[in-house]
Amino acid sequence: MIEVHQLSKAFEVNGRKFFAADNVSFSVSPGTVYGLLGPNGAGKTTTMRMVLGLLRPDSGYSEISGIRSDIDSDGVKGQVGFVSAAAGVYQWLTARELLSFFGDIYGITVAESRHQIEQLSQLLDFKHILDQRCTTLSTGEKQRINLARALMHDPPVMILDEPTLGLDVVGSQTIFSYIELLKSKGKAVILCTHRLEQAQRVCNRFGMLHRGEMVCEGSLEELQQQTQRNDLVEMFIDLIAQDEATTPVSGVIS
Amino acid sequence: MIADTSKKRVKGFSFARLKRLATKELRETLRDRRTIITLVLMPLLVYPILSLVFRTVLMSSIEDSSGSKPVALKIVLQSNKPEQFSASFIREMRDRIRTYELAEANERTPAVPLDTSSAAPPVKNLLSKTRFARFSEHEWLFSDESDLTALQDTVLHSDISLGVRLDFPDAVPPDHWHLCGITIVQPDSELGDEAAVYFRKQIERINQEQIAAVLREKGLPDTQPVVLKPTMIAKDANAPPATQSFSLASLIPLILVLMTVTGAVYPAIDLTAGERERGTLETLMAAPVPRVSILLAKFFAVWTVAIFTALLNLIGMAITVWTFQLETILLGAGGFSGPVLLKIFGLLVLFSAFFSAVMLAVSSFARSFKEAQAYLIPIILLSMGPGLLAMNPNLSLNGVWTIVPMVNVLLLGRDVISQHVQVLPAIFAVGSTLLYALVAIHYAAQRFGADNILYSNQGSLSDLIARPVSVQKHFTTPAAMLTLLMLFPLNLIAIGALGRLAEPLADDYALLVILMAVFTVVSFFVLPSVVGWQQRVQFKSAFGARLPKFRFVIPATMLGLCMWPLLAILVDGWYELTGLLVGEEAAATRQKTLLHLTQGQVERFRQLSPIVVAFAFSIIPAFCEEWFFRGMVMQTWLKAKPNTSPWKAILFSAAMFGFFHVLSNSAISLDRLIPTTLMGVLLGYVCYRSNSIWPSTILHSLHNACLVFLGYYQPQLSQLSWFPSEGESIPMTWAIPALIVSSISILVLAKMESPAHDIRGLS
Predict the structure, then answer these.
(1) Tens digit of pLDDT for each residue in B222-249?
(2) Which structural domain range is residue B280 located in?
(3) Are B207 and B159 in contact (CB under 8 A)?
(4) Which of B207, B227, B243 finishes a domain?
């Protein structure tokens, strides 16, 4: 479903090249939740943006259902529902207006759009706030609206970039149970999160990124074998410890 | 539950969808309190306040100018017959006018006192009272001169309010004075305007009386022709424009336009830069929708708000003008009429389309509200420039002005209010404005949500001027743009300074020429090079200063030698075209003046040695300009946008090249813009194909040399029978070979293998 082949992307900061993604490869099949993990600045978001076709890779490519994001980014975007922590809402629109707008943007018919709003508001439990302006909603409610927004066109692939950021325990619990549901519906999901315990529970496969490089990749068992650690939190701590031990030059070339 | 929705998708462009998208944008904007404030409150408050200020200023100026003493109307009369002959006519005319004055004074209700300590009197009454009071005293003088120009001279250079010339037919008995032709010479002042209107009115009354008398006498139906026909000689064409009063009518479009712009600013920023600030931009970009449809929807929303603002402003202004009785002062006798209001509204709709598109294009660059404001406020302030320019009463909608953004719409607005619209210039103005709007939307669609706007942070000043740690192959775009911006004021200052020095250095022309050359070197070579050093660029690549393959030098040389006759034809053609727009005569006068100017310079060139001429007018400017325009500007663009057509880089550098030449050609002469820009395109193409600035430098300096030395050796050349003499258009025997050689050279350039660098196909 999702194939990522040696994606690389470098940025220039003060005349120096900085690799945000360096030869990153992985694949995600339908019904799989792929946890893309790593400390801040590891290159998770850049990788996701390249997969989605929002950023052009310097080299390598990714494809979704056989469509390459660097060739037909609109084709890829149509297959993906994208939720990011930074995503805002149109504060002056009501939830319903916002969702119909995105229905329009994704090219679904008005009737279909109505049907989806009905279904999704029930599923994510926000029917009561459908006609409230977004400016009046709580963070959790906004995030639920955002999830619904990403599902308006019923995409086979979901890319979730820290969807639980800023949510309380209950809020994030809702999101994770929702991700479980997505998995059961056969969607291919890339999940990027810092909530490692939940990730460990919900994800089938993991990719650990560090300074733009894929440090280890596979199912939990494979990761445990590779790192000799039991859980993700320990693996993560190891990764950061390495970071402190080495001088921060490996990702930077002049 | 989530799955199993039908997979039907709306494909391609749909008006219904565009409408829904635009409605969403509009809804979002209109629900925001800030939009409503600019939309509704401004016109509600601004116009009454403006009108109060306006009234106060107007009243005090009326009191100042009228005072309690009435102004005497000083009329100088001139006749083609001796004074005795004209005397009876003059007496008759004077007596009749006096009778009218007296009758009018009696008819008038007790005059409103000029002392305004009581409640403010209506402005209209005050004005008519003033006008009456002004000319209650008449002084009639007779000039002995018989020449009309002498009368014009007298009127223009003394305190005479009006000149009147009487032309009696040759064989006319003295009592048939009504056969006399009257020419009114009006001085170039407000009082002159008033006096002319006044006098004309009196003459018309005499006419009517005369007609009535003739009809009574002969018992004929009242279809008799007017007996006395005054011909007005309006202001002296050579008078300095400064003394012309500007018309208040030109102020109205400016105020309306500014208010409309104010209405569109907020939505334009909110719907573009605001998207990123709210965090909705990335979500929007993650959707498979062409940016053009998003931008079109945004454009329609901003445009709608701007139209609403325009409408409310227009209503506000009309109500204010009507209530405060300002229409006659502002708009003349016609006042506001339905059709005029409709036309103004139409123009505002057009203008707001243009400005909405421009503002969207600019704010699409911004990453935040603040940044967008920082870009838009200077643009609004700058747009006051064309606005003020359009208030110049000497400027009319013709020639290049029909396509200068903003100025054209404002001039058209003025024409609409004064009801003197000419069709062809109006079509040009409307067409070009729409075209600019389309270009701006296209540009906005390219910029909106682009990677660097979506993800990069706002750079600080130190980022901009920070010296890179390593050697760079090219300039960064901000560095090149900043240099371009610095050159703009530097150029203006240098041109001004050279202009000032021209007189003290009149005897030492060589020094002036050297100063000009130094200025060229400093601005186009030294400044870019210093920036290059500061930015640690490799000069060879950043300025395109690599050595070219020799094979490129030959076509460049041929082009350098052959372009001048073609350019001369082009310039002729340009005048033909402007002739169509401005009228043959005006174009011919302009062409002559320009030729004359060049001729004046050429006379002085001839005092210099040919070597100085060659360096100062050919080699140095060619090298420095290539260094900057084809070097820094074009190479930076080529590098910054490696995936776009190189034509864009060529066109941009050529447009800048043309623009700077217009600047240096003193004031606002746009005549050089098109030929110079085309030359810039050719130079850019040569530079691009050869991947070096040297062939284009050769072309440029040879071309300059041809033009300069043709002038320099004009006396010698004019003795050669085979050489086209001065002022004559280029004969075909010259143009055709030049065309053939240059076409072959361009073909050779196009076919020749380009150096294997990052050359992209020029398609």
Answers:
(1) 544 444 555 544 444 343 333 334 455 6
(2) 15-53+247-451
(3) no
(4) B243
A100: which chain B residues are within 8 Å (Cβ-Cβ)?
20
Most confident residue range from B111-115, B246-250, B459-463, B481-485: B481-485
Contact B6 A78 (CB under 8 A): no
Write out the DSSP string of B462-474.
Answer: HHHHPPPSS-BSS
* pLDDT bracket for residue B681 (50, 70, 90): very high
Assigned domain for B182 exists? yes
**Residues B348, B256 within the same domain:** yes
Same domain, B268 and B341: yes
Which chain B residue has its CA at the smallest distance from A105's CA? B289
- Both B389 and B407 in a single domain? yes
**Domain for residue B356, yes or no?**
yes
Residues A170-190: tens digit of each pLDDT: 888 888 888 998 899 899 999
**How much is the pLDDT for B406?**
84
Asked if B450 is an interface residue toward chain A (Cβ–Cβ < 8 A), one would say no
Contact B284/A at CB under 8 A: yes
The answer to whether residue B116 sits within a structural domain is: no
Domain residue limits, chain A: 90-154
Specify if B466 maps to a domain. Answer: no
What is the predicted ipTM?
0.88
- Mark whether B655 and B668 lie in a shared domain: yes
Q: Please tell me whether residue B669 adopts helix, strand or coil conformation.
A: coil
> Is the Cβ–Cβ distance between B513 and B498 less than 8 Å?
no
The larger pLDDT score, comparing residue A109 to residue A15, is at A109
Main-chain phi, psi angles of B78, to 5 degrees? -140, 150
Residues of A in contact with B36 (CB under 8 A): none
Q: B192 and B214: one domain? A: yes
Question: Whole-angstrom Cα distance, residue B130 to residue A43?
Answer: 80
- CA distance to A58, B373, B735, per residue, from B25 (Å): 35, 20, 57
